[in-house]
Every structure is written in C-alpha cells, then in structure tokens.
C-alpha cells in the first residue's frame, strides 16, 4: 500500500512539474492603408488624445470585427500605414522581397498603376472562399480575380435626382383623377423604362421650356433634364448590360453600349436633355453644374455627384420641395430583375494581396477579410446575414442624403426607389481602374458635339478601338510575365535657388548639383544624367524663375522637379528695404535664441531695389540678447542683396519670465 501511495505521489509530482502548454500564438494579418486613422479603431490623435475614428459606435463595431477574426482564426489584425505614396510603397516592398502588408488597400485611382506593376496575386484559386459572399468578389479583369471588395454602395458616383414637387405642376403627368404619376410610381409598376422616361421628359420640357431659370443658373430656362453626358451615357450603358470594360471584358463597342449612346443622343436631339455646359475644348462638360442647377431649382432631373447630393437636396428642402434618388431607367427589352440591368458603380478603394505572401497566408488573409467585413456590416445594420444589410440600412442612408422618406404621400415611394437602386449598385465599372476612361470620354464627347469632325459613336469607337485594345494587350503581356513592371517615375527633388546676374549664359552653369533623383527600381540616379530646361528663365529681365530638372529611369519613366533662379541687377547701388513687424512677440526666458526663425517671425519686408525677396538672407546679431534674464534687449537684423548692398534694422526684444 505504501508503494502505491509513493507511486501515486511521484506521478502527481511529475504531472505538477510538466508545464501547461501555452496557447498557440496568434497569426498576424497586416491590413495596409494610405490613411490609418480611418481604418484602425485603436489609433489615437497625438494632438488631441482622441480616437481618430470619431463615431464611437462604428469604432466599437470594428473592434468586435477584430474579435470575431481572433475567435475564428486565432488572428490578430495589425494596421499598417504606408510610409509613402501607395503606388511606390507597394511595389518597392514587393521588389525588396518584404511585402508591406498581407491585405493592401488601394485608394481610388491608384489601382491601375498597382495592377500594371504586376505585384498583385491572382486570387482565382481562392474563389471558393467567396461562396455566399458575392459582394466581396468584383468581376474578373484580364481573365483573373485580382481584387477584394469591402464597399457597400447605395448610390452611383453620379446619381439621378428628381424634384418631385416640380413634377406636380405638370398637368400632362397626371392621371384621370388628377393625381401626379411620379417616377417612383412608374418604378413600382415596372414601367420605369427608356421609352417612358423619354415621354416623361418630353411632357416636362413642354411645360417648363419657357420658364426663366432662377438667378445664377447655368441654363437660361428651366430644363427637364440637365446632366453631364458622360455619366448619363455610362448609366444608360450599364442599364442596358453594356460597359466600357466589365464582366464580359471589353464592351466599349458592344451592341448594348452603342444602343445606350444612341438613346442618350436621342434625348439631346429631342431637346429634353441638355449638357451642363462645356469647357473651352467644346466637348468636356463642366461636370458639377448640373447638380448646382438642380439645387437652384433650374432642372427637374439631374445627375449629381455623390458628395454634393446632400447639400443640393437641402436647398430643395428649404423651398419645401421633395427629392427622390432614382435608379437609371432600364431599356424596354429588359426586366427590372434582369442581371444585365445594373447601375454603374466604379471600382475604387479596393483591396488586393501582394505577391510574396505565401499561399497559406493568402488563404488565411482572404478568410479574415470576409469574416471581418461580414461581422462589421452585420453588426452595423443589426442583421444576421450580409444579404439583409442594404435593406436594413436603406432608411439610415437615405436620411443622410436628406431624402424626404417620411413624407406622408411620397415617402414610401422615395424609400422603395432608394432601396431598389442600392440593390443594383455593385462595383462593376473598371474603366478608370484600367486606364480606359479618358479615351472613352474624349470619343463620346467629340461624337456628341462633332468636334474635330468626329463621327457618330459607333463609327468613332471602331476607328479608335486600338486605344483600348493596345492598352489591353500591353497589360495582358505584363500580367502574363513573371517580372515586376516599373511604371513609377523617379523621385526628384530640388531645394533653394541660385541668383544670377543679368545677361548670364545659363548654358555654362552646372545645374546637376541642385538636384537629387532616386528610383525604386534603379536606386540613386546620377545627378548629371538629368536634362535641365532653362527655357522659362529670361536672363535679360530681373525676376524669379525656375529651371526644370528632368530624370528618366531605365524603364523610361520620367520624373521632374523645379529649382529657383533669381535674375538680379549687378549694377544696383540702392540699399535693400528691411522692415520689422509692428507687434513683436515676446521671447520666453531661457529660449535658445539661435533656434528662432528671426526673419520668419519678425521681418515684415526684405526686398532689394527691384523687388526680389531677400527674407532668407536676413541674419540676426544676437550678441546683446540674454535670454537667461528678463528684460529688453536690442537685436540687429542685417541683409545684403545680391549686388552686395546692405540694410540694417535694430529692434527691441522683451525676454519674459514664464
């Protein structure tokens, strides 16, 4: 028995001596961003001491999303702030074999550059992880899935607004009982189509066509529909299943796209749609003016940029008018439930996974991305599934825009239209991202206005297809290779200036010493390898000019910076003008006087006889200033101009004890 007790005791002692296995350390997934303060719920403003995400509910929801990721995958999320421009930071980190993050956020407009650097992983093999989460998977580009989406758009970049109150004046829009038929009614009846829209606009234009527009409007008379033709055309293209570049690849010359352009042109030719004015080139719209005129009450329908919707609706509300945000109408041959009937949503502020991240970690990153954003949106809307998010949040979002959803007569229809519009809003427009938007803008605009003899769109687009196909071929070649593509210009800097006398021969001057240039792929460039454009300098006229230093890397990318040149009169014998400010601030005791910017803080004017600025040449004589003892002390400021003429001023500085 004693042996059994001893054996049991020994076993217990052994077990007590075995250390408890620690929990497995969490894996870190790094989310990279160009602006950490709006993504990281733990980030604190060093100046105020407050969290940079000011909405406390939103901040706590983000923390809950982190907790969900931690619980499900044992993953800690780390937020990484890019130290430089997104396009440079990402490619340089991949080039160095040390990707800066696992999930990289690219600000809207940077994606095309990043994709063309060939630093993003195709995510095709992970598509199964998107099952049931179509919201996070944008369409393929160049045959592959490169991007992850977290945006839940409720409106287009340019949304179609309608002043519902102005419609009530148009008798032709009333039914047999004298009730106005609103666009929201047409949508509910499934009659919100191109032909109905055109007929609707025709009746509005007939009523308002001779009514003077309010003061300040871009148009002279009230319009049925004022717009930027580019956004109206894009909206019509996507409503018809067309695109510039979309899920079906290049669609800029597709039957659907051509039909859409023809429909928009038919509205203009019928006089029921006007552009918001064009710039001097005769075909580029003054893109915000239609929204401005809508706010003034100068047009019944208008495309309005998303960031201006609230302010313009508020203008209408102040006049007692109700506004609806409508989906762009569908063509007559499509049902409203058709997958081809869409609202145009530009792909932007999108995510990707950099090359150099292992397959195992890439798979984990995609899972984390889905869990994080699903948790975030479900908690934000208090719903159990992402599919319910938009409908649950529609009322809140509509209120943010100032839509009159609580109007006894119109409110339900306005909200229903907003919900329908939001359900049709999924990222689908890759034109900007792929560098195809600018050439399309020019072609459609010149065709509309006949600029430079540009023919109709269908003819013009075929004549200019190489602008799109060449872009595609170049990108496909880059993405099909295993090499990173250098599309980043060298970083060039120049500081200061040089003063030269009238008549100086600039060709004999060595400008290279004033410039530095560094390239992410090629390293530091030889300053002497630059070319220096001095054409802007008139050495025969006194004044301030710049010399442009231009540096080209091995890939042909060009970067530049400007360096100052001041041309002065060497024969000038007049002393400079040197004055100090009337109200001179005091200096705290024990201040290091050598660190004070005397010229910047105290000098009002420092110029030579010809008006050249001399402030940076001002020197301070501090020999009589004792900042260790309170009192008044003289400080002498002196400046010499480029011809050697001098000016001096003495003023009193008061040293005060704190």
Question: What would a concise description of this structure say?
Answer:
The chain is an alpha/beta fold. The strands form seven sheets. The chain has a five-stranded mixed sheet with strand order 8-5-9-4-10. The chain has a four-stranded mixed sheet with strand order 2-1-3-11.
Describe this structure in words.
The protein has 658 residues and is an alpha/beta fold. It has 4 domains: 156 residues, Periplasmic binding protein-like II (D-Maltodextrin-Binding Protein, domain 2, 3-Layer(aba) Sandwich); 218 residues, D-Maltodextrin-Binding Protein, domain 2; 78 residues, Immunoglobulins (Immunoglobulin-like, Sandwich); 80 residues, Immunoglobulins (Immunoglobulin-like, Sandwich). It has 18 helices and 24 strands. The strands form 7 sheets. It has a 5-stranded mixed beta sheet with strand order 8-5-9-4-10. Strands 2-1-3-11 form a 4-stranded mixed beta sheet. It has a 4-stranded mixed beta sheet with strand order 13-18-17-16, with no helix packed on it. A hairpin with a 2-residue loop joins strand 6 and strand 7. The longest helix has 23 residues. It is globular. The chain starts with a helix and ends with a strand. The N terminus is likely disordered.
């Amino acid at each position: 028995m004693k042996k059994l007790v001893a054996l049991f005791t020994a076993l217990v002692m052994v077990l007590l001596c075995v250390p408890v296995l620690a929990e497995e350390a969490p894996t870190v997934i790094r989310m990279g961003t160009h602006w950490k303060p709006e993504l990281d719920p733990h980030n604190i403003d060093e100046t105020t001491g407050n969290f940079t995400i000011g909405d406390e509910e939103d901040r706590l929801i983000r923390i809950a999303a982190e907790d969900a990721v931690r619980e499900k995958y044992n993953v800690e999320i780390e937020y990484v702030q890019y130290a430089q421009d997104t396009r440079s930071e990402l490619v340089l980190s991949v080039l160095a074999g040390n990707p800066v993050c696992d999930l990289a956020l690219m600000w809207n407009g940077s994606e095309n550059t990043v994709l063309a650097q060939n630093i993003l992983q195709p995510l095709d093999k992970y598509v199964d992880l998107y099952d049931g989460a179509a919201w996070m998977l944008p369409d393929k580009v160049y045959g592959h899935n490169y991007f992850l989406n977290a945006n839940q758009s409720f409106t287009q970049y340019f949304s179609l607004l309608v002043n519902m109150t102005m419609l009530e004046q148009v008798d032709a829009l009333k039914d047999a009982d004298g009730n106005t038929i609103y666009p929201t009614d047409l949508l509910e009846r499934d009659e919100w189509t191109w032909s109905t829209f055109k007929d609707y606009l025709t009746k509005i234009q007939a009523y308002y066509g001779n009514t003077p527009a309010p003061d300040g409007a871009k148009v002279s008379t009230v319009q049925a529909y004022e717009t930027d033709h580019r956004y109206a055309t894009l909206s019509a293209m996507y409503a018809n299943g067309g695109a510039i570049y979309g899920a079906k690849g290049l669609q800029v010359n597709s039957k659907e796209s051509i039909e859409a352009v023809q429909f928009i042109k038919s509205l203009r030719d019928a006089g029921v749609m006007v552009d918001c004015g064009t710039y001097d080139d005769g075909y580029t719209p003054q893109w915000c003016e239609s929204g401005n005129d809508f706010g003034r009450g100068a047009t019944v329908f208008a495309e309005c940029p998303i960031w201006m919707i609230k302010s313009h609706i508020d203008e209408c509300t102040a006049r007692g008018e109700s506004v609806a945000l409508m989906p762009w109408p569908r063509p007559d041959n499509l049902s409203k439930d058709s997958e081809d009937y869409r609202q145009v949503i530009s792909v932007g502020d999108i995510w990707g996974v950099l090359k150099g991240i292992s397959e195992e970690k890439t798979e984990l990153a995609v899972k984390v991305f889905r869990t994080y954003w699903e948790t975030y949106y479900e908690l934000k809307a208090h719903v159990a599934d992402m599919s319910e998010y938009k409908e649950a949040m529609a009322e809140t979002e509509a209120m943010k825009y100032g839509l009159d959803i609580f109007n006894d007569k119109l409110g339900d229809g306005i909200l229903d239209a907003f919900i329908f519009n939001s359900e049709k809003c999924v990222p689908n427009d890759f034109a900007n991202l792929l560098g195809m938007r600018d050439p399309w803008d020019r072609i459609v605009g010149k065709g509309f206005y006949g600029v430079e003899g540009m023919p109709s769109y269908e003819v013009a687009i075929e004549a200019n297809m190489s602008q799109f196909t060449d872009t595609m071929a170049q990108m496909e070649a880059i993405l099909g290779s295993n090499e990173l593509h250098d599309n980043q210009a060298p970083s060039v800097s120049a500081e200061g200036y040089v003063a030269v006398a009238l008549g100086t021969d600039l060709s004999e001057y060595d400008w290279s010493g004033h410039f530095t240039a560094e390239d992410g792929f090629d390293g530091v460039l030889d300053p002497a390898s630059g070319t220096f454009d001095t054409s802007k300098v008139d050495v025969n006229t006194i004044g301030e000019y710049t010399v442009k230093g231009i540096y080209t890397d091995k890939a042909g990318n060009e970067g530049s910076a400007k360096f100052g040149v001041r041309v002065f009169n060497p024969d000038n014998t007049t002393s400079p003008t040197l004055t100090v400010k009337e109200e001179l601030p005091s200096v705290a005791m024990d201040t290091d006087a050598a660190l004070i910017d005397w010229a910047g803080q105290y000098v009002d004017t420092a110029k030579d006889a010809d008006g050249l600025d001399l402030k940076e040449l001002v020197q301070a004589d501090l020999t009589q200033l004792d900042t260790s003892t309170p009192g008044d002390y003289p400080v002498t400021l002196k400046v010499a101009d480029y011809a050697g003429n001098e000016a001096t001023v003495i003023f009193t500085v008061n040293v005060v004890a704190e």
